[in-house]
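Support request from a user on the community tier.

User writes: "When I paste my C-alpha cells into the form, the page sometimes reloads and wipes my input. The last time it worked, I copied everything first. Here is what I submitted, just in case something in the input itself triggers the reload:"
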C-alpha cells in the first residue's frame, strides 16, 4: 500500500463512495448477557456510575466509571477465552498482532432460514453453495453469519426455554471446515455468543469456541447491521481493548464498504 492508496481511501470515505457501517449494538444496563447453568459463575451485566457531571465533584468535566464482563454486548473472543486456545502466546487481547484486527469479510445470509427455525445450523454444504455464487472464502478473512437476530426485541434475543436457549449458529462440521479447510481469521454472529443456543449438547460441545479458539482464531458476537454489507468486499475493523491477559472485550466493530 502506498500513501496514494491511503489518500484515495480517505478521499472516497469523505465523498461517501466508501461507507462506514457500524456493526455494534449500544452498550447499556439493558444489554442482554448470556446466562450459564446455576453451578457456574455468571457474567455481570453492564453497569455505569457517574463520577462527576459539571458539579462539585468535578465542575468542568463529566465522566463515568463502568463495569461488565469481558464478553458483554458486541464483543471480541480471543483464543485464550477457551480451554483449547489457552496455550497460544498471542492468544489474549494484549498479545494478538494488530494486523489481525483489520481484515476482509465474507457475509453469509441465512436470515430466512433463521426466521423459520431458531435452531438453524450453518453447514459446510451451505457455505460451498455460497462460494459457488460469490467466490471462495479466503484464508485470513472473517466469516460473518447473517441471521438478522439483532433485529429481535431484548425480550426475544436470548430466546430461553426450559431446555436452554434456542438461537442459530454453526454445526460442528461447519466449524471443522472453516478452521481446517478455509483457515479463516474468525467467525462472527448476531447472537449473544458464537455458538448455537443448543451447542452444549453437540459433540464436541460449543464447536465455534472449541474449534475456532483451538486453532488460534477469533470470534465476534452480538453484531448488528450485517444486512448492510455485501457478501464480499467489506473490510472489518475489530480492535478489542488491550487488556493484559484479557480473554476478550466489548468493542466497536466497523465495516468499510462501497
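"...and here is what came back when it finally went through:"
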Amino acid at each position: 500500500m502506498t500513501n496514494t492508496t491511503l489518500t484515495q481511501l480517505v478521499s472516497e470515505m469523505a465523498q461517501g463512495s466508501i461507507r462506514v457501517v457500524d456493526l455494534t449494538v449500544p452498550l447499556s444496563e439493558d444489554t442482554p448477557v448470556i446466562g450459564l447453568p446455576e453451578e457456574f459463575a455468571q457474567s455481570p451485566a453492564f453497569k455505569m456510575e457517574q463520577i462527576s457531571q459539571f458539579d462539585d465533584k468535578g465542575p468542568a468535566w463529566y465522566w463515568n466509571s463502568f463495569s461488565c464482563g469481558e464478553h458483554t454486548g458486541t464483543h471480541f473472543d480471543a483464543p485464550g477465552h477457551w480451554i483449547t486456545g489457552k496455550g497460544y502466546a498471542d492468544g489474549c487481547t494484549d498479545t494478538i498482532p494488530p494486523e489481525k484486527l483489520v481484515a476482509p469479510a465474507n457475509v453469509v445470509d441465512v436470515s430466512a432460514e433463521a426466521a423459520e427455525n431458531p435452531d438453524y445450523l450453518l453447514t459446510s454444504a451451505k457455505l460451498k453453495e455460497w462460494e459457488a455464487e460469490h467466490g471462495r472464502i479466503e484464508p485470513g478473512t472473517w466469516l460473518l453469519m447473517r441471521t438478522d437476530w439483532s433485529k429481535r426485541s431484548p425480550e426475544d434475543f436470548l430466546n430461553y426455554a426450559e431446555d436452554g436457549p434456542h438461537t442459530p449458529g454453526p454445526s460442528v462440521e461447519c466449524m471443522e471446515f472453516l478452521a481446517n479447510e478455509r483457515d479463516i481469521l474468525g467467525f462472527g454472529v448476531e447472537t449473544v455468543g458464537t455458538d448455537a443456543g443448543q451447542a452444549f449438547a453437540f459433540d464436541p460441545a460449543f464447536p465455534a469456541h472449541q474449534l475456532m479458539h483451538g486453532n488460534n482464531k477469533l470470534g465476534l458476537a452480538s453484531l448488528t447491521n450485517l444486512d448492510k454489507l455485501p457478501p464480499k468486499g467489506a473490510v472489518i475493523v475489530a480492535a478489542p481493548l488491550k487488556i493484559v491477559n484479557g480473554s476478550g472485550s466489548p468493542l466497536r466493530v466497523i465495516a468499510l464498504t462501497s
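Agent notes: The reload is a front-end session timeout and is unrelated to the input. The CA atoms of residues 46 and 68 lie 4 Å apart. Residues 3-15 form the longest helix (13 residues). Escalated to web team.
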